Amino acid sequence: MLSVQLAEIVDQPLPGVGEALDLVTGFDEALTNGFARLGEDRASALTALAGAVAATPLGDRVGEAAAKVAAGSVSEENVTALAGGRTALLGAVHDALLGRLDAALGRERDSWAEPSVAGTTDNLLSGCRSWLNELAITGWRGVDHDLVSAVGQTMEALLAEPRLRRLAVLIDGLAGELRASCPVATMEVVPARRWADLWARALMLTQALMLTQAGGLPAGAGEPVSGRLLVLGVDVHEHATAVQAQVHAILEPADGGRCRLVRTSVAATKVDTIVGSAVWRLLTGVPVLLNALAEHRSLDIKDMPLLSGGDLIWHDDRATAGEPADPFTTARVQLGSALAPAAPPLERHPVRLAEPVLVEGYSVPKGDEMVFDLGGKTITVDTGRLPSCGPLTPAIVRGSESCIGLLRWDAGRWLLQPLAVQGMVKKLPVTAHNGDWAQGPTDPKIAKAEARNGDAVAVLRERAGRLLRK
Amino acid sequence: MTADRTAWEQRSVARVVSPVSPRKLAKVPFVEMADGRLQGVVSSGSDISRVYVSSITAGTHTYNCSTNNNRPCGGLYGDMCKHLRSLVDEAVLQYGQDRVAGYLRVEVAEGERLSYHLNGGVERTQGAEVFSRFLSHLAYLELPMTTEPIAELHWFPSSGAVG
Asked: Are A27 and A159 found together in one domain?
């Protein structure tokens, strides 16, 4: 990414984005206080949101729902329609941001191809929906232990259903935060945007028609692809009971077609006491992939399904380790011309923006907030996104000269999340990638600390083996 | 301050729960602050298939300890048993002394051992529910991993690197 490209991304405000976000903020305030006690101001916030989507196919439905909820009819159907309106607005914000980014980077993006799917429905989903509806009626401010615990049984059943893992992981993440914040009425500030985001997405995922593209992949999903996969970096996601490693890579198709930017993900459920580099031990079911991350190797893949949204569905038995491949070389040579994937319609939200870029030749001025200065243009480094399961630390990033990162956006500003850096620390050259510890920490200090605490995964599995099946 | 507050309210990726610190799990595999109690499971030192369920109530500081079959702990007379002390010590390692003391509503000076300040006496409570929560906790590790992308986890970045 060049200075002029960064300037194009950060300098010009995007028309309409601020206004759209103000409407979302109004909705979020209404949700914080509960749809059962709207009052005039908050009711008009819902009407305003409905007005913004009036010209879309959702228009009538959302308009009607806003009127009914304001009149006191807080039904599941109306609440879901409003959540849909909010989702559509943030989808439009996402599109505007991604469009700006693509134009600045000269990144070409594929168009979305809708997979053919059939909807299904499920009792579990209606259990989730009614809990989410209760939250909307009560509002975050009214959430207490009883309301959070009410989802417990549904949660256990959800987790047991692999088809609904995505929804389960989301609801468990939200419920965990609510539980830790109970009673919410005593919280000084409520994370209104965040919780409304999670809540609205969960409601969307419970919609029967969304199910097949959003919860559980149908057999034969995606287009089988073969070729060479060159890793750029790995983005790690984690909450108390889940961890996901999402690898960003370039796919060189075997048939000589155009190189594509893809993501491939592996995820496991966990418990809060499994932290740091121990999380990799939950992902040992994909040894070929972990080995490629730890040893910086390319991968040869055969007939792996690639979804229209750029997600490669990893099958470890269809991959073999290839030659050593330096992610920085991959980024320098191939990132600029690779074809980027479309975002799946339901996933269009600013939080999903995670565009790989290579940044070089920057300086890191002193200051509380770390920024990269690229020829006079600065971008904030998201140091809150450096995972404890890898070697990147704020100090290493501060001393870096080259960085492979993800461009992200939150609360009105662009951020850079480092995935890998090269540079000098204490006058010694250092290279660090997020996936370096995928087969165990390579830093002796970290390895020693880990050995002192013992293998958390093994300890808990032993306890599970002895106590669970009695 | 107001600007910071507004910014936090409007962030999609705001940190709400701090990640816990790593600790040895062999002795106390499970500890949580829930239902108004600090509660958890302590492995028996002598019998590999026995565990104790220990809990301390916030505010009153009454406590209880029993086996997973609901037999009272033999070490529980006059004072806390070693299981309860381990539970408190490990909770402090996991969550930090401030958070645990705050939850239990107890004043402790820095450097003092928290468990010495909890003298509410024994109050029999049902351990079965805590044990069943522990089993649900362990069940997370029994689920198969998935390679289906979970887009929603973009709201939950892994963090915590220091240095």
From this structure: yes
C-alpha to C-alpha distance for A109 and A261, rounded to whole angstroms: 10
Query: Given an 8 Å threshold on Cβ–Cβ distance, is B11 in contact with A25?
Result: no
H helix intervals, A309-442: 327-334, 394-398
pLDDT digits (tens, 9 = 90+) for B23-63: 999 999 999 998 889 999 999 988 888 899 999 999 999 99
How far is the C-alpha of A312 from the C-alpha of A304, rounded, in Å? 7
- Encoding tokens for residue A293? 């991350």
Distance CA A72, CA A137 (A): 10
Are the CB atoms for B120 and B57 separated by under 8 Å? yes
B23 reaches A (C-beta below 8 A): yes
Average pLDDT score over chain A: 93
User: Could you say which of A182, A214, A246 is where a domain stops?
Assistant: A214
**A172 interfacial to chain B (CB closer than 8 Å):** no
Q: What is the pLDDT of residue B78?
A: 79
CA separation for the pair A125, A204 (Å, rounded)? 11
The answer to whether the beta carbons of residues A329 and A279 sit under 8 Å apart is no
A159 touches chain B (CB under 8 A): yes
Number of domains in chain A: 3
Q: In this structure, are strands A428-433 and A413-425 parallel, antiparallel, or unpaired? A: antiparallel
* B37 part of a folded domain: yes
A330-363 in b/e form (b: 16+ CB < 10 A) is: bbeeebeebbbbebbebbbbbbbbbbbbbbbebe
Domain that holds residue A308: 223-334
Q: Are residues A356 and A294 in the same domain?
A: no
- CB-CB neighbours of A329 under 10 Å: 10
* pLDDT score of A289: 98
User: Does B161 contact A390 at a Cβ distance shorter than 8 Å?
Assistant: yes
Q: Which domain holds residue B130?
A: 20-139
Q: What is the ipTM of this complex?
A: 0.96
pLDDT tens by residue, A254-276: 999 999 999 999 999 999 999 99
Q: Is residue A466 part of a domain?
A: no
Tally of domains within chain B: 1
Cα–Cα distance, A143 to A34 (Å, whole number): 10
Q: Is A303 helix (H, G, I), strand (E, B) or coil?
A: strand
Amino acid (1-letter code) at residue A431:
T
